[in-house]
Amino acid sequence: MKIVSIVGARPQFVKAAPVSRQLRTRHREILVHTGQHYDEAMSDVFFHDLGLPPPDRDLGVGSGSHATQTAEMLRRLEPVLVDEAPDVVLLYGDTNSTLAGALAAAKLSDLADRRPTLAHVEAGLRSFNPSMPEERNRIVADHLSDLLLAPTPTAMSNLEREGLAERSVLVGDVMVDAMDAALDRSAAALPTEAADHPGYVLLTLHRPSNVDDPLRLGAWLSAVGQIGPVLFPVHPRTRAVLEQAGVAVPPAVTLMEPVGYLAMVALEHGARVIATDSGGVQKEAYLAGVPCVTLRGETEWVETVDAGWNRLAPNPSDLGPALAAATTTDRDRARPALYGDGHAAQRIMEALERVTASRAAGQVAS
């Protein structure tokens, strides 16, 4: 089986790493990096930390508006897929790279009846917030895909409600696989700022709705700065707004450069509370047994809220009370295995093998 795996952003590198290791035990994988995250802090260090092989194809798309970036990915992906003629195109998550990969694979007229199986890892997630670009991306990817690889029963229910149950398989979450593989190595990667600020709150902010307006970004920092100390690895998008608008940073907030995956896992495990607008970090907080406050009005990971480990803070005015409540969370309370047993990558490979074999048998029969 020949698989083209398409990645482009840090969360996708995390998800792809355990799957890539599994696939390469008995199949040929072509790893394509769109270049959506392209600098060392956002890309190279993650490949190193995760043990991902260098990309076989680096499209070097870079940044741009949603339309410009997606269009350029489409333009550069199509000839790669035609040239490689894979059995499977494998997508991850909900970024513009996911959307472009889904559209490019679904419209491969040059391959005629050899169109590859299109498979989507992390299928079925829904925030039910149509204003989020990620929500649009994952819905389109799900409805175009031939195989939907769902991480949770909630995701399976979402897919069933949309008439996609027959294409869906519950495999568990590959981020459990990734974190399990990283734990033994992460302690050595803990940044020195953690030791200098015991009892820290870990903060991440990158979504346009939270950081593009300097007033809103400043309000988030002011609110979290009252809890302190706070460690804040700053996404390049967020840093640009901070610097261009001169947003005041409270003394309790320590700005850090973006960190690699191992350092992030170490910071998450050492935090008193995590405040984030990242979907992946919410889930990692749960896996680490650290209370989380999500700086949004909704979450795809509703199970973490239901389990009492995650709280929503739609606006900066909500953050103080949510953080105060999170700090009282009993860390000995139950944490059900919501996201599987750490063998999602194996189940993904097996599902791909079944579908590919079934399609091959159908072509022979016809």
Q: Can you give a write-up of this model?
A:
With 366 residues, the protein is α/β, with parallel strands linked by helices. The chain folds into two domains: 2-173 and 341-365, Glycogen Phosphorylase B (Rossmann fold), CATH 3.40.50; 182-327, 3-Layer(aba) Sandwich (Rossmann fold), CATH 3.40.50. It has 16 helices and 13 strands. It has a seven-stranded parallel sheet, with helices on both faces. β5, α5 and β6 (147-150) form a beta-alpha-beta unit. It is globular, with a radius of gyration of 20 Å. It starts with a strand and ends with a helix.
Itemize the secondary structure elements and their pairings.
Blueprint (H helix, E strand, L loop, with lengths): L1 E6 L2 H14 L4 E6 L6 H11 L6 E2 L7 H19 L3 E5 L3 H11 L10 E5 L11 H12 L2 E4 L2 H9 L6 E3 L3 H13 L5 H5 L4 E4 L3 H4 L2 H12 L4 E4 L2 H10 L7 E4 L4 H10 L2 E4 L2 H10 L3 E3 L7 H5 L3 E3 L3 H12 L16 H22 L1
